[in-house]
Amino acid sequence: MPEKDNFEERGMLCAVSYYKALIFYALAEKHLKENDLISTIITSYYSIFHLSVSRIKIHEGFIFDEEKELCDRNSPDKSKITHEKVMRIINQLVEQKKIDKKYYDCLIELNDLRNYVNYEPRLIKKEKYTFDTCSKKDNLLNFQKHMIKLRECFFLYVDSLTQIKEKRPFDFNRVYWKQFIFDFYVGEMKLITKSVALSAKKLHKEIDYYYEQRI
C-alpha cells in the first residue's frame, strides 16, 4: 500500500480513461450512422464504462498504487477493473449523492444491451424453434434515445467532478495528455481514423466549456 495519495497521478489515470470514453462515444456515433447496431451498442457501453472508470480513479478515497495501476509485461495485468466492480462503485456514488442516478441507470441499460447482443438472442421452443427477441426489440430499434442519454452522462460526470474539493480534477487540456491519447490511437496503434478523433475532440470541447461554466 502506498504511503500517501498522489492526486497528480490519479488525475493522469482519470484523464486517460476519460479520453477513451470520448473515443468510444465517437465510434458509437459512427457505427450508428452506418446502421451497424451491434458495434454501436458495444462501443456505447464501453464509452460509459471508461467514463465510469475515470470517475472512480478521481474518487475521494481512491489510492494510486503503482503495483496495481501500471502494467508489467512479465506479470499478469494487475490493473484490471471488473465491470461488476465499476457498477457497484458507481451505485455507491449515487447513494452518496455524488453522481446523478440517471448516470447509473444508463450504465446498467447499456450493459444489459451489450450482454444481449454479445450472448443472445437465445433459441426458445414453442410450436417451433424461434429466437427470443421481443424483450429487447424496442431498445434495439430505437437506440438513438440511448445515445442521447449517453451524451448526457458526460455532463453528469462533469457535475459530479465539480463536487470534488481537492485541486481541479478536470484539468484534461494539458497537451501531453490529450495529444498523446489521440496520437496514440490514430498514429501508433491505428485503432481509429482521424475523423473519429475529430468527433471525440469536438465533444470534449463542449464538455470542457460546460465545466468552465460550472466552476
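(the above was protein one; protein two follows)
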Amino acid sequence: MAEDKMYMFRPTSRDLRIEYPELANINEFSELKTKELKFVWFYANRTSPYYTAKGGDRNKILGCIRNSFGNSYKEDDPAEYSKYLRGNFPPKIREAIERMERFNPTARARAKIAIETVFSNLEQSMFMDEEMEAKMKEDIELRKKYVELSIKIADNMQNVVAQMEEGFGIRASGSFDRGDKGPTIMDMLHMEDE
C-alpha cells in the first residue's frame, strides 16, 4: 500500500483562498489574482513539487507558470511572461512568495496530528465502562463531575472540530493530477526546519 503524500495548501480547481479560508486573511495574498496565488504556491510552498529547483531556476519558473497561468501565458502576455521567466516578479508577487515560504509544513502536520489526538481523547473521555457506570449510580459527586466534564467537552468540541476541518492546510493526496509527488507526512515530520 503506497503512502499518501502530504501537501500544505494544495491547489485544487478552486481559488486557494476559498479552499483554505486562512489564506484569505493574509494581507500578502488578499490582492493577488487566483492564478497569481497559485503561482506563488507552486514557486514558494515547501510542499510544492517545484520548491526545490532540481532542473535549475528557469525550469522551476517554467513549471510554476505552466501549472498556474497555463500554456498560453507566453502568447497572452509576452512582456509579463518574459519578466517572470527572468525571476523579475512584481513586488506583490515577491512579497507573497516571502510570506508563503514562512509556512512551516512540519509544524502544521504535527498540529494536525495533535488536534486529531485531542478530539480522540475528548471522545474517549465520554465513554464509561460498566465499572464506572456502577460507581456513578452510587456516588452523586462522581455523577456531578461527569456532567461537568460532559458540558466542558461539549463546549470545546465545536472549536476542535473546526480546527480538524481546516486541517492547518495539510491534506493528503496520492499525487498531483499530472503525477508529481510531494513529501509524505513522515518526510514532513523529519524535515529540518529552515
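Reviewer note on protein two: Residues 140-166 form the longest helix (27 residues).
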